[in-house]
Amino acid sequence: MKNNSTMEEKKVVLGINEKPKPAQWLLLSIQHLFAMFGATVLVPALTGMSPAVALISSGIGTLVFIAITKGKVPSYLGSSFAFINPIIAVKALELDPSSGVGVGSFLVGSFLVGVTYSVVALIISRAGTNWLMKLLPPVVVGPVIMVIGLGLSATAVNMSTNNPAGEYDLTYVLIGLVTLTITILTAIFTRGFLSVIPVLVGIVGGYIFSIIMGVVDLQPVIAANWIELPPFQIPFVDYTPSFTWRIVLMMVPVAIVPIAEHIGHQLVLSKVVGKDLIKDPGLDRSMLGDGVATMIASAIGGPPSTTYGENIGVLAITRAFSVYLFVGAAVFAILFGFCGKIAVLLATIPTPVMGGVSILLFGIIASSGLRMLVENKVDFSRKRNLIIASVILVIGIGGAAIHIGKMFSLEGMALASIIGVVLNQVLPGKQVVDFDEMFKE
After folding, report:
1. Which pTM value belongs to this model?
2. What sign results for the dihedral spanned by CA atoms 317, 323, 328, 331?
3. How many CB atoms neighbour CB 126 within 10 A?
């Protein structure tokens, strides 16, 4: 009886290339849309970018990813959290005429991140995958992920406590706490699909509470058009792209994190769907899909892309693996991006709502780095591991920087990532991880 139950649990509802029925297609696609929605719009909200453009770029990026992977990898590509701090830092430099950083440089940096993904994909297609694990072992990637979450912690707290004038506001604190509480309760006490979308539930709950508290003005939503062109940022039309090594060094090294995240997602997804996606269609194709999606996003004003663990969670729950569901979710995201009322509605979400959600989300990012260290049994009784992690954490969170003139700058997370990779290569006692064995575990 127990065996029958287990077989029932593992029964596939929809195969990867199986076309769903219309009603099934609609409902399951919307479910994937909800799973990615909260995190995808949170990144542009924190970085001053357009949530509508982020939705459109995520939809287009997902369609491109599915095409490049030959329809064999059921994944959704949304906004990457790894680049929140670098984008904020670059946009701050754009406002400083003495920095030598031109308008739109953060988009140039994002484009170069996509190029980096693509170059890595090309090398994988020629040299295999083990070199990547040697370059980015858990002892390097784990602390870098922790730096991302902890480095953003002050931003989350400020958003939850300070009003637009930068003053402490008890109403904002209350909204932030209510939003955080709703998000935590959803994550802990709900089951099934709701447990996968606590961020979205938290934002909706916090938004409703903000309306009750009189913080939200819904008049702009009422006045907005249903169909409206989003504020795209097109190179040579809305800005003139400018290349500086400073931008390269601030953004490109951070690609270490989403590259490692991409590998992890493909391994987990392979186990969920029961097929080795690392070999077919290949990690090179999925990485290339990520890279092209990021380049397209940067060309229209969207943030860098990454595959989403939230949608993998939905796959594991529903056992419906069809790529058609991701096509449907992508089309809905694009349509939402062109809906003026939705764009304005997103813009009216109060900062303490986003702040309350971010307190948990950024903490989870940091904890994910710690989890990577624990799950991969990184031994901190070994001095080399202790040194690598310690240096990455202090340099990354402390905001250490190397400045040479106005055009060369390496700082924060980017500097920490590079130093972590270098330390892992030069310190004695390096342990080699066999990538091919990871799927078998």
Report:
1. 0.85
2. positive
3. 7
